[in-house]
Amino acid sequence: MASALFPAVHRSLGKVRWYLEGMMGADAYRRYVDHHAATHPGCAPMSERQFWRDKYDWEERNPQGRCC
Amino acid sequence: MSEHPSTPPLELPPSAVAPDVAEAEERRWTPGKIVLWAAISLLGAVAWSVLAISRGETINAIWFVFAAVCTYLVFYRFYAKYIERKIARPDDSRATPAEYNSNGRDFMPTDRRVLFGHHFAAIAGAGPLVGPVLAAQMGYLPGTIWIIVGVVFAGAVQDYLVLFFSMRRGGRSLGQMAREELGLIGGTAALIATLAIMIIIVAILALVVVNALGESAWGVYSVALTIPIALFMGCYLRFIRPGKVLEISIIGFILLMFAIISGRWVAESDLGSALFHLDRPVIAWSIIVYGFIAAILPVWLLLAPRDYLSTFMKIGVIGLLAVAIIIVRPTISVPAFSEYAGRADGPVVAGSLFPFLFVTIACGALSGFHALIASGTTPKMVEKEKQTRFLGYGGMLMESFVAIMALVAAISIDRGVYFAMNSSAASTGGTVESAVAFVNSLGLTGVHLTPNMLTDLAANVGEESIVSRTGGAPTLAVGIAHIMHQWFGGTAMMGFWYHFAIMFEALFILTAVDAGTRVARFMLQDTIGNFIPKFKDTSWRPGAWLCTAIMVAGWGYILILGVTDPLGGINTFFPLFGIANQLLAAIALAVVLAIVAKRGNFRYLWIVAVPLAFTAVITIWASWEKIFSPVAKVGYWAQHNSFKEALDQGKESFGTAKNVEAMEAVVRNTGVQGTLSIVFVVLSIIVIVTAIMATIRAYRAPGTATDTEDPRVESRIYAPSGIITSPAEKELEARWKDVPADQLPTTGIGH
Fold first, then answer.
1. Degrees, nearest 5: CA angle B363-B367-B370
2. Does A31 touch chain B if contact means CB atoms closer than 8 Å?
3. pLDDT digits (tens, 9 = 90+) for B719-751
4. What is the pTM of this model?
5. How many pairs of residues across A and B have Cβ atoms under 8 Å apart?
6. pLDDT tens column, B556-582
7. Whether B206 contacts B559, CB under 8 Å
8. Cβ atoms B336, B415 nearer than 8 A
9. Measured between alpha carbons, how far is residue B211 from residues B410, B421, B427, B607 in Å?
10. Distance between the two ends of chain B, CA-based, in angstroms?
11. For a tag on chain B, would you pick the N or C end, based on fewer CB atoms within 10 A?
């Protein structure tokens, strides 16, 4: 178990992953669930599949520029 | 709206370090801090002296890195802080839109380090990679000075303040802010200018891709393969494993590497080269068709997955290049000022140093396009007001560093090769022999080009020929291959590195083309919607398709003109790109000027007024030359009239135009270029004048300007204000950590 032998390596890999996911927006669902739990307690959030469909539909209507 | 309970059950720690404590902390100079900043300043000064004074045979590239990084650090610490204190005046006890509007979607408080990467990925593209390459014809020093000095006084100031003021206005766009601050005329002019500028920028970027892929079977094959790869990624995320973005990006990246490696086999096979060896007009038409289809396809299918790939590549390549430059430390034999620094007839881009250096290098020093990003996604995600300095100012410094690396890559290759690659086919004649004769006839010191140098390099990078591969991208790719192969893989790997670089530039640009078309389509629909309300409905298919088609036709037309231009294309069209981008910067700075004036802050108005005046003067001057210069190489209309005259006299060929058809093409192209120059400059002058009028009104009647900021909301969350947490921040952070999770305030609004 490499991760057990090298907890420091494991931790820093985790950080890299956290950073990349944040930067690319891969953590959007987790953040949505947290937000939903905080603002709508007791009401079930969308499923992950549903959430991503909804997110891309939203991006369709709200295009974001990319720079030159 | 149950998010703000009136009586919190527990006394929460403060949402920010008390201003006087933070102030005292910043102003306390420990011996360690003094030594550190003295050392940084000293190293920077030494590096600048080496760059400025060294007139030896060669210079080591590491000095560029030191000069840039030390200057960035000093200006970030002192000048950006000064702007924060005197102009922005952020307040971390005030909630940001991400907090008070939090909706689990676009408004989300985001960790500052993550948001920095996010913001940087959105602003950095092919622009800072291309401009410095073209400007390298003037020598290394003019470009280096403008990239570094320009960014700290202008580019980063613009990005920072637009981000800050947009954040204070709930993340409003530049267009909306212009409308509010400058009134109907200024706002409308800003909107039309933005739309026109987007079209020209997309067209020129597409032209760069076409020039990089023209007659290159390897390049066409591997870039074309990105489309099925992106489609596969899109379907994977939609149907197989939704949300596993990192996983599919790694798979996509591996497939991309395969696309590059297998490109060599395809290019070397008969069938492969027959299929993928395409002429430039064919590639241009393919990109136009692709651009239309990509812009109407669902986001999840093509745009989003390719954006993941492009982000992945961006961070990877830029990091890799930085490490490679530091490890390889290439030596540079380009002079500080070349023969073309004082002349207007440079073969790469025409025009004298003043003003054309400042429009050739746009992105990297000052980029108006950033104002559209800094007033779009990012301000809706900022956690704390003070973080805007790190995000806006710091993010732009990072882009400037990318531009410096591009410059280093371009000047690390032989100068003779540089001119053979970047002079248009109209000058070089397109063959190795004629290119060698042309370059050696330029009379450049230290340049002795031989045919072998060109054919060997072409063979090493796996291309048929490298003569007249204009547009900057191929030169940068050769530069990157030149640096990388010394570190990793040797000559055998040069082809891989070259196509790796071409691929990542093409990825950026295709993403920018697609996203730019979509954004422009929405802007157009919104504008037409004022007259025909049906168009406001963006999900109405016929309207969406029509507006997409209009936008694609707009940039596609200019792209085709550029590809078929008898004068060479990029060297005549690129100044339009730079001028458009800098005029957009002038518009953004003008809006910021009006906002600062309306806050009654005239004492420090110069912080905005000086870069605004500089960019306004330099770009209006450049536009003036492009419109009125009697020198045919520089002025569009002078060229236009001389070709028209030649046609009237019944000449069959004139200059580099070998027949009547080509002469007519020159007349048409220069007419389009000249007209666009006039449109851009007139619109920008209107915006600048309305901003100055708003400023004067605010000065004459202080306190009467309407406050356009969102009302203050007390912040109930905590986050550090910069990249490094100070002792007082650490202490506060510890207190927040002690708050039980169920007592933490929730942000945002319910639905």
1. 115
2. yes
3. 999 999 999 999 999 999 998 887 888 765 544
4. 0.95
5. 134
6. 999 999 999 988 788 888 999 999 999
7. yes
8. no
9. 17, 11, 16, 40
10. 8
11. N
